[in-house]
């Protein structure tokens, strides 16, 4: 059931617990977490969180669909969404069509732990907009995930003791993550992905533009990062069908991890494993300036799908996997 608490709403699960649904609601509580879901089953739709000094959502061993919600930039140091214990058996873990503001200090936007394909459902991030982070946007330890058709913007280390990435993860209790990253747009970031501690990621048909450590405290950066200081290396990455434009470096902190690039278009030369990579201009419709990418709503940010679409004469048209276009806009 649903019970009111001083901090907000607490939804506890148990045998026979009903699904709790909340929609088109403005939530502005003054205690701790606005919504805590512990083992429950929820569908949260069109919620706007108003108190920017308290954590918005906690998902612990729950089944959840979170859609069309607005998580504004925080004015106190906390993670906007935090989750533990993976996903409830037989349930769902879906976050889709949501707008996420940024954080301050050493805080991720979404920190979620648990959910491996062999034993549990896995979390899905679909068609969300993330406007920035001072640490990671998605921090997924011991968490297999499917990440598709999202927009990741302005990720730079400012307060984090290690690197800052749009998508990052290590292992928890010895369990690494396997993550599929497909059809997303990345713009202005220190690292697109960090996969350490035996993690393995697959990146397919993403458009990845403006990799730089400028704007943050990091002294280095790359599209793909395999380790952080004091952390073991990931097992590797596989990249196919991506457009990578305006990057300092493709790979960082690689010692023995296997990184394979097949049929990508990149502004840098790749001499590692893989074939069919080209170094030519992708002819995107428009590469925006930083000033053009300050979006206040999910709807405003959708212009990036048009900006990062291909001009008719682009070498990426029809030259991707299976004869489809390269990049995130197909």
List the helices and strands and how they pair.
Elements: E1 2-5, E2 8-12, E3 19-27, E4 35-38, E5 41-49, E6 57-67, E7 70-71, E8 81-87, E9 93-96, E10 99-100, E11 110-113, E12 123-126, E13 129-130, E14 138-141, E15 145-148, E16 151-155, E17 165-169, E18 178-182, E19 185-189, E20 191-195, E21 200-204, E22 207-211, E23 222-225, E24 236-240, E25 243-247, E26 251-252, E27 258-262, E28 265-266, H1 298-301, H2 303-307
Parallel strand pairs: 2-4, 3-5, 4-6, 5-6, 6-8, 6-9, 7-10, 8-11, 9-12, 10-13, 11-14, 12-15, 13-16, 14-17, 15-18, 16-19, 17-20, 18-21, 19-22, 20-23, 21-24, 22-25, 23-26, 24-27, 25-28
Antiparallel strand pairs: 1-2
Quick summary:
This protein is 3% helix and 40% strand. With 330 residues, the chain is mostly beta strands.
* Average pLDDT taken over every residue: 91
Shape: globular
The helix-strand sequence is EEEEEEEEEEEEEEEEEEEEEEEEEEEEHH
List segments where confidence is low: pLDDT < 50 over at least 5 consecutive residues: 1-6
How is the main sheet built?
A: 20 strands, mixed
Count of helical stretches: 2
Q: What is the end-to-end distance?
A: 43 Å
Tell me roughly what share of residues is in helical segments.
under 10%
Secondary structural class? mainly beta
Radius of gyration: 19 Å
Kindly state the number of beta strands. 28
Percent range for β-strand residues: 35-45%
């Amino acid at each position: 059931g649903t019970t009111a608490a001083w901090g907000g709403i607490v939804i506890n699960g148990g045998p026979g617990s009903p699904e709790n649904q909340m929609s088109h609601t403005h939530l502005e509580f003054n205690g701790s977490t606005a919504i805590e879901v512990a083992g429950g089953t929820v569908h949260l739709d069109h919620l706007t969180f108003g108190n920017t000094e308290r954590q918005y959502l906690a998902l612990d061993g729950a089944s959840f669909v979170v859609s069309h919600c607005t998580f504004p930039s925080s004015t106190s140091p906390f993670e906007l969404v935090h989750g533990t214990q993976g996903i409830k058996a037989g349930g769902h873990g879906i976050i889709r069509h949501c707008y996420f503001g940024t954080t301050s200090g050493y805080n991720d936007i979404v920190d979620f732990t648990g959910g491996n394909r062999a034993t549990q459902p896995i979390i899905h991030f679909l068609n969300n907009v993330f406007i920035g982070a001072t640490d990671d946007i998605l921090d997924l330890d011991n968490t297999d995930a499917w990440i598709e058709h999202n927009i990741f913007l302005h990720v730079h280390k400012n307060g984090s003791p290690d690197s800052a990435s749009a998508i990052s993860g290590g292992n928890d209790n010895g369990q690494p993550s396997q993550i599929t990253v497909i059809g997303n747009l990345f713009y202005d970031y220190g690292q697109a992905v960090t996969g350490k501690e035996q993690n393995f990621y697959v990146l397919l048909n993403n458009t990845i533009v403006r990799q730089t450590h400028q704007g943050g405290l990091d002294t280095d950066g790359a599209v793909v990062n395999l380790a952080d200081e004091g952390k073991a290396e990931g097992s590797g990455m596989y990249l196919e069908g991506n457009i990578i434009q305006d990057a300092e470096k493709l790979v960082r902190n690689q010692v023995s991890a296997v990184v394979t690039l097949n049929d990508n278009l990149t502004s840098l030369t790749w001499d590692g494993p893989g074939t069919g990579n080209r170094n030519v201009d992708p002819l995107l419709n428009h590469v925006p300036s930083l000033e053009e990418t300050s979006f206040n709503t999910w709807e405003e940010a959708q212009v990036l799908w048009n900006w990062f679409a291909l001009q008719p004469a682009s070498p990426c048209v029809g030259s991707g996997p299976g004869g489809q276009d390269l990049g995130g806009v197909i």
